[in-house]
Amino acid sequence: MKIKLFPTLNSVEEEDLKGTTAVVIDVLRATSVITTAVYNGCLDVVPVLEIEDALTYKNEEVLLGGERRGFKIEGFDLSNSPLEYNRQNVEGKRIVFTTSNGTRAIIKAKYCDTILIGSMLNAKYLADFVVKNGSDINIICSGTDGNFSIDDFLCAGKIIYEINKLKETDMTDFATLAYLTYMNNRENIFEYLKYASHYKYMMSIGLEEDIKYCFKEDILDVVPYFKDGSIKKYPL
Question: Per residue in 145-192, pLDDT tens?
């Protein structure tokens, strides 16, 4: 199995993705939100690029969720906090979702044959799925505003670490670096994470509890996948 890691959304080209399996990561917080919502029984999650796109879906059967600069969008039902996407709020609901980075990465990955949603929350279960599937994978880190994010890099390393526990892989140098970074810091991940600029920004706007939740490991046994415009639970 070959593993290639793209450090940012902007490092991905269409030709890189055709005919491949992709894992999209925006650990703080979009893919953590999506994983949580799917686990808690939402009907599906529809990622869109712009606020205006989301508003066209607005009705009593749909929840609008997302953020800009980390803050809830005016007129939306939910923010980008995974803590809001509990079973009481989302079960049986369609969620239309737009964020600064994560939903853009998901939509850009549309050229892949299979698109999976990755987070710390479901890393072990995602790794088990891709190993059983057997195909080579491209891991796409969304990054922050086009820039590299340590937080996504650590999450990618976690997923690669879990895959390598199950199967020998052929990793690119960047994937290897993510693997080693996670492996060497997994016992005290927050000591490394605190150097991330995105972490510092989220702390500055009061999102410490979201960060703590998003870095809980292997607590949700679900693999969300993106197909035909929406994200659902893969039938494991």
Answer: 999 999 999 999 999 999 999 999 999 999 999 999 999 999 999 999
Structure tokens at 13: 């080209």
Q: How far apart are CA 63 and CA 77, in angstroms?
A: 6
Residue 85 has pLDDT above 80, yes or no: yes
- pTM given for the model: 0.97
Tell me the residue range of the domain where 143 lies: 2-227
Residue 235 inside a domain? The answer is no
232 part of a folded domain:
no
182 Cβ contact list (under 8 Å, min separation 6):
154, 156, 157, 158, 160, 161, 189
Q: Does some domain include residue 233?
A: no
Task: Note whether 47 and 65 are within 8 A (CB).
Answer: no
Question: In this predicted model, what pLDDT tens digit does every residue of 117-145 receive, in sequence order?
Answer: 999 999 999 999 999 999 899 999 999 99
Domain count, the chain: 1
CATH of the domain at 28: 3.90.1560.10
Between strands 137-141 and 2-6, the pairing is parallel
